[in-house]
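In response to a reviewer's request, we include the raw inputs and outputs for one of the modeled complexes. The two entities were modeled together in a single run.
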Amino acid sequence: MRYSAITPSDRQKMLERIGCKSVDELLQSVPAAMRTRRMPEIRGPLPEASLLAELDEGKVPAPKVALVGGGLYNHFISATVNSLAARSEWVTSYTPYQPEVSQGTLRMYYEFQTYVSMLTGQEMANGGMYDGSTACVEAVLMARRLRPKAKRVLVSKALNPEYRRVLATYLQFQEVDVVEMPLDHSTGTTNMPADAGADDVIAVVLQSPNWLGVLESTANIAPSAFRIVVVTEALSMALVKPPAADVVCGEMQSLGIPVQLGGPTAGFFATAKKHIRSMPGRLVGRTLDRNGIEAFCITLATREQFIRREKATSNICTSSGLMCLRSAIHISLMGRKGLEEAARMSARAARAFLAVLEELGLKRVYSGTFFNEFVVDCSARPALGARLEAAGFLLGIPLDKHGHPHHRLIALTELDYARMPAIIKELKAHAHAA
Amino acid sequence: MRTPLESVIFHRAAADKEWLRVCSADAHQDSIDLDLPLRDDGLGGMQQVGEVEVVRHYTRLSTLNWDIDRGLYPLGSCTMKHNPRLHEAVAADPAYAAAHPEWPPQFLAQHHCIMRELAQDLAQLSGFEQVSLLPAAGAHGELTAVFMIRAFHLAHGQKDRNVFLIPDSAHGTNPASAAMCGFKCVQVTSGKDGILRLEDIREHLNDRLAAIMITNPNTLGVFEEEFSKIADAVHAAGGLVYMDGANFNAAMGVFQPGRIGADVMHFNLHKTFTTPHGGGGPGSGPIGFNRNLAPFAPASGDPRSIGPVKSWLGQWGMFIRAWVYIKTLGAAGLKEVTEDAILNANYIRKRLEHVLNLPVTTPTLHEVVFNDKNLPNKVITLDLAKRLIDYGFHPPTVYFPIHVQGALMIEPTETESLDELDRFCDAVEAVVAEAATDPAHLKLAPHTTPVSRVDEVKAAKDLDLVFKSTENA
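The model returned the following structure tokens for the whole complex.
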């Protein structure tokens, strides 16, 4: 076996020391009736080069241009992030329960918490969640702990559909009604019900920029409401502060994490200091060691499952440390000015591309302010999307399965800014041929 | 050679430092007016650091960590095994790292093919009929199973089945997951020999029972020999059996949970299937289940499905690593993994059973739990664990499982050499000897780490979770 460090003679020596004739003797505590009788049918073993050759053969060329977002965005990631985050000390270490030998990871979590606090404008942030969809769920569950008697959760129709489905899964067995807040079909913003601040409302959940790319506001929500703002395009926060909220949570993928088919990524979760003890997830605090030297450790662990068991604020254990590290390195490299620049480039690329689509007779569907993503009605050129796709150019996400046959959700980033002339040229070539 | 102890990055930040430029400015696009409500708070006080300092900083921070590439990481029930470099290289290939789940299916054919084969292989190994890869981590897999169990009972008109039986040896995530779905957790006590007996749970076999959660082998490393008997009785009482698969490294090719009575189980790809732990994730927690629970699974296509527990497809980046691992070893190799893991743990047990107290003497598989009962001079588990660091070893899991007082839980895994195991056992022997000769020195350990014992009480009392930019002024 490739990764065995035990030689046959070691094995013999060890068995002798233990006082056994064979490894099988060590398995005797598994009653015969429960033992596996036949080997599982599994392909392998494959040596390294054979395995890589098989993978190469199966590869399909990636799209040339993919203006696809919808909650996961193709942003720039420096080689420096990939290189630093690949160090063994980050990749192969465990959750930092032993602080003396985990100060690297612990300091990184503290930095991540600080960066999330800066980006969201909230006082406190945790050390990350699995992803944006579960961070959103955890925010609603926290609101429910704070308002145990309330029964309704108001959820915007423009919350990412993946997130809405995950939220529905978690809430189906609770005595909670999920009430959908409808859209203003002209602006693409959420219509806020007048009773959002009522006593029986657990929380109001909004996404900004929302799933249709439009910025939302919480200005018209009664101050008594518990406002949860979800951000799936984290880079937007470099330019646009998230709306005032009790929790700002979402997806960190845009900042240093590859899309990798939607996972793993990292969720973030930020709130006011007063909610800290109800918060889910891991928290790292700064303190001192025995000699008065600055030291970091996991803190308020009495909220967590390994201490508190069934009374924990969440069941989360292994979370997304390595992805949080990637974000922390990315943000450190870019700094405020770099993030702002990338955000401006993303927003400008989206506007430049939209202008060309409009030249071709396509129209933006919603009038609300957008960051880097928007919905276009392609009914003026119904064949354009398929024609582009055949050439490896993905004109956003078709919204037909969401009930809008000619609508496409189109996202651009600073990487598209960098190659805008080529993108436009390709688009026009296919548009004119169509 | 010692570098100064690296603090957090904010001390290196300044408003006039360089930043990373992504691409050249484009005059045409830059003439576009941005009709956005721009934030005016200086991005919460964020500044720049500069590339060279970022590299120095994260390199120095990394050196403050222990890691499996450096040596043994004997945490019990955590399965800290070698993480092959090959997996990292494959997962970083843009063909896999850059794929987007909203791309049309023709661009994702290979990805789906790999996911299908991984699910089949996990089903083959575990004896379950089906596998869902979706859950993001072990506890998330547990929660998914708990949802499915709730949905199963509701579909059978059993809404009053609200009790989960959980042995005292269980991981904390078990009761936490059950409670998240509103179940009442009842702790059951295993026998002095560390084995849960049917007799121990018989009083709970009634029409309130929803399920039992059993870790097998349990957190003592002991195989639950009455597993099938308990499962039969639970089923007869109308309940279901959840198996915590954290210790699946002891099962491959030896027993199949899906064929000995478990209805559903989670895998930890970041334990058994060697995807890295990354300082606390990402993990991946697929679940295996049998026909009775299949309609309730996420994405089952059945109207009784609980629905998705995570966005998109799950932890793809972990799937491809686990797939490469399984293909690299094949069925025979995976069986050897389990055998060597059990051999290594039993070797440590044999070498240390006269050095430390072994509270449960029942035969064990892939891990072993000692405690601090016979240590002299009031030296406790924590002291021993901390002193091991000075000898170049990461401490074992301490004070878990909670039903063993002063527990010291050791899981070496199969990827450790005999030489490494011997050096570890020598170190434990040396520390125990010190407990008699120099307990004071031991009580202050570790002495060789970047920081010494950390004031955790202060951390919780004077909460400091976010850097204040005024500190730099």
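As requested, we also summarize the result in words. Chain B touches chain A through 204 residues (CB under 8 Å). The beta strands of chain B are 130-132, 163-167, 184-188, 209-215, 240-244, 264-266, 287-289, 368-371, 397-398, 407-410.
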